[in-house]
């Protein structure tokens, strides 16, 4: 097997090389097609002008248009042949035969086009030179540059002669003989003088015309010499002419070198493309549209061609057919034939390897999916056991003065270790608000059955540690949560009247733990936020409202850091500093209030703020308090 220069290339490198080589091969093929089209069309339509000048005029008949289409089809066919020919793997004799039969004409056409273009360039340079323009002007004006003074003088002499003849005829009017004779004598002399003058001018004009014709002939010859001046040839052609080579031969040699180099480049790129495709086929990488998906070695994903049908000589086992009776042969002979079988079908073996590797990957993927199903089954089993130990619903006594701990229904939180499956999603959920965090802690503590103060406190901290994404509560807050739960458990065995009495004894110092207040749990933060946003749309422009939303995080940070208070005055000051002055926006006081309401409702929804239990809708108590 011949060495392939792409043997050591990776899959990505092979694909990159294929794109570059294919692009270069197409570009040089298109250039060859255009050169051949110009040459063949120029000769078939029979024009003396460059083909682009002839197209600009486009005063062609049906025959010339027909030849145009024939020329384009002819050039396309030959270039399509060369495009595929250079990618074929032929021996030297076959390549030489095809080269002389089919490639010779494209080269001849392209060389001819190159020479024609060189001649057009030389002719254009010659005719645009100053010397040529001056000489062309002299030739053009040669017919009108004769001595116009001689012509006008001759015309005047003839006019004098005609006048004298008229006067001679008028001499008969005299009745006196002497007077009449004198008149005739004078006019006869005038006629003779005018005739002599005209003949003299005629002789001078003939001599001038002869000289002018001679000059015109000389100027015309010089004009032709300037038009065909080789001094306007390209410098590289002039270099060869300086060594004694005829200009036409030098032009042919230059064109041959250029076109020959292009053909060599086409042949080289075609050979590279052939080797590249052979290597890609050997690896099972797709080089055509007949593709199937496959995952290959080293974790590289790509598409490969569909493997050949497993029948006939194309099947991989066909190469190993003689090995059917290998049991009767020696080990050495068996190994030799096995190696020959591998060499006889390298591409098929590589394809089968890719197929086997793909099947192996599929088995691993199926095994992983099966393992995931087992994990889900284990989750379900553990959850079932957990449900057996902890009931889904926990009932608490409900009284007229109920607190946050007294729920009709508290959802159960399973303390199940995560294996796989849906339980993993619990650790990907967004962070809970303060309210939801306290609710889940209370539910977990009550589900644990802890009764003593120490057990309840430990259960609170355990529940908080087991939560996937709780609100950031400090140890002091957790201890206060436990303190609120302890008397509730003790009151669970007492009468409803005793519970109400103990609840009424709570002081205002408990307001900092807002989740224990009934308002905090009955308050619908989501609904409040939607109503605030709807109300603001009629009071604040859409652009300003959008920018106001962007200031929420800054306002929240200022509130949490206690740099600003939850008062209307402080809120307006913040809006004025950051929106009106900072962004040069104009907003009414009513709009400021609407924006502040949105911020507060959103903070309450996120658990940053909690509803004030003392809020009545009137001063001095604010609607919200800071959660922690």
UniProtKB/TrEMBL annotation:
Keyword Transmembrane helix appears in the UniProt entry: yes
Transmembrane segments: 20-45, 65-85, 236-269
Keywords for the protein's UniProt record, in alphabetical order: Membrane, Transmembrane, Transmembrane helix
Protein name in the entry: Uncharacterized protein
